[in-house]
Amino acid sequence: MKNTEDIPEIYEIGQLPPPGIVPKYMYAQVLRQNRYGEPINAFSIEKIEIPAIADDEVLVAVKAAGLNYNSVWAARGYPLDMIRLMKLRRETNVDFHIIGSDCSGIVYKKGALVKNVEIGDEVVIQPAWYDPEDPWIKNGGDTTISKTSRAWGYETNWGSFAQFCKVRYFQCLPKPIHLYWDQAAVYMLSGPTVYRMLFHYAPNIVTEGDVVLIWGGAGGLGSMAIQLVKLAGGIPVAVVNSEEKKKFCEEMGALAINRSEFSHWGGLTSEMLKPENQLDWGLQAKKFMKKITHLTGGKLPNIVLEHPGENTWPTSVYVCDRDGMIVTCAGTTGYFCSFDVRYLWLQRKRIQGSHYANLQECIALNQLVMDKKVYPVLTETYSFEELPIALQKMHENKHKGNIAIQIGY
Q1: Closest C-alpha to 165, from 249, 72, 98
Q2: How far is CA 340 from the centre of its chain?
Q3: DSSP, res 273
Q4: 129: nearest Cα among 184, 70, 48
């Protein structure tokens, strides 16, 4: 073991000490409440003391981190001020937030009770954080609905936008050996999220020949959804906002629609549904529905993968097939969703909320990647310093696939 007096108190970005050697400080992209706003202005690189770990925790040196939309929410302090919420929950004693819910890295330190990893192991991090001592979980309950469940790197501190991150032992899964660090950093949030949306909510699970409508098909969630639907024998129909993204999805094997060709987006009002007005919106929505059936040979989606929310929700309920499911995991265009309820009850459609995945689903998705049956679609890699620029691009929906940030190499 190297003498602690010989260890620099901090290493520069792109450098790491040998595995097992932990300096006193690290660099992190830090959020503070007085900077909340557009992601491009919300972060500052700060020198932060590396946190201590508990007996069931692991300290991971971050090689690369992935971007997700929850980091946009955190940077804006909306819909929730997460620093304030963590303080109210008595889950933080600092006035800053290091976010980031996706990464690949190397185990540098582990608690006394940790047995599933060793110092030097190469890992990816799944962001389902919870208290394994919760009676609900110990009695076999799904971890996603435990009162202790948190989205690591969003609802917790010490996320991946730093040289080191702190996780619980069960968050560490083996890194697929065929992936580069930045490829491995971008799929463990979006992948399990989509996996659960497609395969958890029986009887509405994707099977041979099922059509699945995928909003934001060119993004991280969408690009993984296209692959999983195809793997199950289904028919992915991706909705995007440009011809460039449409071609991107088609090259992945999806049918694709450019929503810019349609004009009925946004929420409904009671005035719009009065008898004298209801055909105005309905005729526009029907054009979108006909586009779907034209592409699929007459089939409507059995599953609609929702995450935009406010702008697309009326259409999602309208075009979903009878006895089908609209399953949502976010509200990236807004949280106030409206729809014509007649299409819900008369056609027996189902609305299902979904929030990330449980550990078994995370392991299953990671195994598919390890077996090369699906792959993370990485389209851009930025430097650590460029994180705010990259996240602003995601906020403005100008990206395709997944974005990674290089940190430890």
Answers
A1: 98
A2: 29
A3: G
A4: 70
And the tokens for 207? Answer: 């099977």
Biggest distance spanned by C-alpha atoms of the chain:
81
pLDDT tens-digit map of 269-308: 999 999 888 888 989 999 999 999 999 999 999 999 999 9
Which letter, b or e, does each residue of 296-315 get, where b requires 16 or more Cβ atoms within 10 Å of its Cβ? beeebbbbbbbbbbbbbbbb
Q: Provide the β-strand partners of residue 403.
A: 380
Let me know: does 14 contact 51? Beta carbons within 8 Å. no
Residues in the chain: 409
pLDDT by residue (tens digit) across 314-324? 999 999 999 99
Q: Which residues pair with 46 in a beta bridge?
A: 28
The whole-number pLDDT of residue 329 equals 95
Give the CB-side neighbour count of residue 335, counting CA atoms within 13 A: 4
At 381 the three-state DSSP class reads strand
Which uninterrupted H or E stretch holds 166? strand 164-168
The contacts of residue 84 (CB under 8 Å, 6+ apart) are 33
pTM (global) more than 0.90: yes
Which residues contact residue 43 at a Cβ distance below 8 angstroms, ignoring those fewer than 6 apart?
29, 30, 31, 35, 75, 161, 387, 388, 391
Residue 90 buriedness (CB in 10 A; 0-12 / 13-18 / 19+): exposed
Q: Which residues pair with 85 in a beta bridge?
A: none
Position of tokens 């609305």?
A: 351
CA trace torsion 276, 279, 281, 282 (10° rounding): 150
Say if residues 29 and 15 touch (Cβ distance below 8 Å). no
What is the Cβ-side half-sphere exposure of residue 379, based on CA atoms within 13 angstroms?
A: 16
CA distance 188 to 379: 16
Omega before residue 79 within 30° of 0, cis: yes
Q: Is the pLDDT of residue 2 over 90?
A: no
Strand-pairing partners, residue 168, are 57
The structure tokens 């409206």 sit at 338
Residue ranges in 89-180 assigned as alpha helix (H): 135-138
> What pLDDT does residue 4 have?
57
- What's the first-to-final CA gap in the chain, in angstroms? 23
The answer, yes or no, to whether the previous bond of 127 is cis (omega within 30 of 0) is: no
